[in-house]
Amino acid sequence: MAERILFNVLQVAVVMAFAPLAAGVLSRLKEMVQSKRGPSIFQPYRDLWKLFHKDEIVSEDSSWIFRFTPYIVFVTPIFVATLIPVLTSYPLFFAFMGDMLGGGFVLALGGFFATLAAVDTANPYGPIGASRTRMVGFLAEPVFMIVFFTVSFVAGSTIPYIVQQKWVTPLANFFEPSHVLLMLAFLMLILAEGGRIPVDNPTGHFELAMIDESKSLEYSGRGFALVKWGGQMKLFVLLCIFLNVLVAPWGLASGQTLGAVLVAIPLVLLKIFCFLLVLVFIESSLAKLRLFRIAEFLGAAFVTSVAAMITRVFSA
Amino acid sequence: MSDATRLLLENLNALAAGLFLLTAFGIVAMRQARACLHLFIAQSLLLAASAALLGMRFDSGHLYGVALVNLISKPIIVPWLLRKTSPAEIYTRREIDQALNIPTALLIALALAIGAYFLGIPLANAVGPEFRGPNVPIGIAGLLLGAFTLTVRREALSLLIGLLAMENGAFMAGISIARDLGMLVELAIATDGLIIVFIMGVLVRAVQKHVGTTAVGELASLREAAAKPAAEEVLL
User: Fold this and answer.
1) Chain A residues inside the 8 Å CB shell of B114
2) Per the structure, how many domains does chain A have?
3) Could you tell me the residue range of the domain that residue A260 belongs to?
4) Is B110 in Cβ contact with A313 (below 8 Å)?
5) pLDDT in tens, B3-32
């Protein structure tokens, strides 16, 4: 029992500790593709350290939502990290507390409060970005639903620990059309939800074009650090769901010993690094879509996910 | 053949069929004529892959022949013919001329694909249990989506690709139903397809020469008021 609790804590610690690293590696790789040197991969840690030591300024006219939001944005990915397989292939303490759909809703809760907080300060740019985030969000939501329901349709469960076994036993299942199409649809979702390039430019600093970034525009000091760290952890958690449950359920610890779990950490990080290479390739080869083309992008994701469901029905 | 290999082959065939369906959706939704052509090539390659996998699964030399014919005629000869016959301008221009906007078109296409299931399942059941598989319903879906492309597009080249996508859909359904058709039939169909491409290419070139555009959707009305400057040249 004590071991399971330890593993759970370890899972959360891995998500907290390595999420900024993933963000740093991603930006460094992108700069390298553009023939620039780029900041060190540890820059996000320094940024967070710096921000935690700065004064925080909160507008007098803002309500409790504004002050409350950084904590929610920070806590929700941690909460989801206890539900999904980050390091172990067997369910841990809280695994049956919520399924993938529940995890999705918990993540959406953070997004919801971030939107409210952006509107709260009455800064003109915040609500613009917030409404755009909602637009992307409500277009992405049906895709999430279809993806999760198709997963449960194919695997007979929405608990991620059970789902991940389904794709590789036997190995031929990996090539099932619904699986491959689901991976495609989920990849498009990650691009949309993570504010990555065809949907949103994460490095853009032009307020009128911002989608995801605008939500943290009014934050400073500790609040900003929490929002930023939370955003990095959200991407990390999404990648864990994508890689450990859908794409490559290998490399997770199946043994109950501490050593097996520790060995799983570098393997998971390696998987995430491989995915970051793909992400850099996507981000460097595509242009950002115009706002109203985002509907088409997510429409394509929706069609892909429904096609996954249809082919499943067709092949049965 | 062991059970594991059989399962793997069936899954790979289903995967090819699933991606085939996705390319059919892509042909409905793409904005550029060139992207449509690339998707069509990908679709033909997937069709060939499906035929080869089914050939391996059922140990049928005939299906390998189908795969080979598809591999040569569609991804290689069709683009070559098009490039020879139709004007190069249509590859470069961005096509925004569509009867429906893209999300609406995609939703209707989804409904069509789901409808294809109800058409395909009785058909697959009628021919026998060994034909169960994704090929028949997905082939019919490809056929319907190609026909839908024909109705929403207003640009000559994408119309042609819609037509060819319909043919691909029919092939997709055909390879799983009639596994041992004469090779002659396949060759005849493949040649037919090429002749269609040739004639359409020449036609497109003629239309472009006379009207100055290949956006054939604009040629539907005869009223002078609705005519665009490009079409006025015809009247003069």
Assistant:
1) 310
2) 1
3) 2-315
4) no
5) 888 888 888 988 999 999 999 999 998 888
